[in-house]
User: Fold this.
Amino acid sequence: MNLRTKIVALAVAPLLMALVLVALAVRHQERELARREQALFEEAAMAQHRNELRSYVELAMSTLRPLYDAGLDDDATRAEALRRLSALDYGDNGYFFVYDLQGRALMHSRQAELVGQNLWELRDQQGRYTIQDLIGRAQAGGGYVEYQWRKPSSAQTAPKLGYVIALPRWNWMVGTGLYLDDIHGVMQTLDRQMNSNVSTTMLWIVGIAALGIGVVSAGGLALNLSEHREAEAKLRLLARQVVQSQEEERGHLARELHDGTSQTLVSAKLLIESAVDALHREQHNAPPTLGKALERLNQSLVEVRRISHRLRPALLDTLGLPAALERLGAEFGEEGGAAVAVTVQGPARELPEDVKTALFRVTQEALTNVQKHSNAARVRIDLAFDEARVRLVIGDDGRGFDVEATQLDPHRGIGLRNMRERIAAIGGYLAIHSNAGAGTRIAAAVPMPRPEAA
Assistant:
């Protein structure tokens, strides 16, 4: 991990940590607030239900009290009391019920089938004794009991809050109740709203986190791109300097060979020729070894000149790139290679040292590949000048090759990679097109430098 990535990571990590802590705190606070709201609502709703039930029972007792306080315990009086209670109801699910203290149903205005049954052993889904709990509360002075009972309007079992009192002289328990499923429904709605609010808040926090990370990452990417461009510019400059240094060393060696070694060989050649002439004037036969030495010396002189020329052709510095390419093509044909035709389009312009050197070396490398691999009969070199760029195209009619496979093979295509690197180092572009049996075409384009204003 580089330094830039570490800096971005150090910027993102605290941001994420802070947002996670904020998210956890917000979630906890919202849930606590929702629980308090639910508890307050439930408490208020239950208090309202208790007050209602107490009022309903007091209303029922105001109807029964004249009969009960009269001290009459006969069946007719009790029957009238049950009739009056059965006539009292409220809403779809509000009614009164009467049981004796042994658990037998005496009156149930909404479930007449229960009248006469002994429900002392009746249990709810949790196993609690429903009627026993109601009677126990009534005998203890009256009060509230929560239990499960069938709801008349839906025929479904629902939670219910009942209020019961006892009439000891008649051996009765009188009560009524309100179903609590409406409260539970509201509580579930509040819970869903709470979860929705929490989810929305979490999404906002996630969005803010993503935006923050995106901003930090974009900043880091911008810095990386800037650093990459700077590094690429430095590499190009370094590559230019390396190539320039190589060319300077080539030129130095070429001059040393031409001015030093070549002159020494010429001097030795002249001395041997003078010795041979002197022997001939004295009518002496020159030893055969002198002739062979002179022949080998001439060959060495030609080879030294050829090496000097290939290291750094003098024409490239004196007459420019077009003349150097024409001479290179001519030498290639003279050495037994393919016939080379060089054409120049547009008015030739003086090119910077690195540009003309790179284009010359690309041509030199291309002709070397033609000689080694192409088996071509003709090669065409086109050099075109215009206002915006200089373009070099080298094409042959050889057997071609698979460009992609050559580029992927690390042991092949070194010369092609060198071409690309040379042209890229001077800000140009090089394309290679080749097909089996259709020859090879190498095109290099380099932008022309703008002339500086006077």
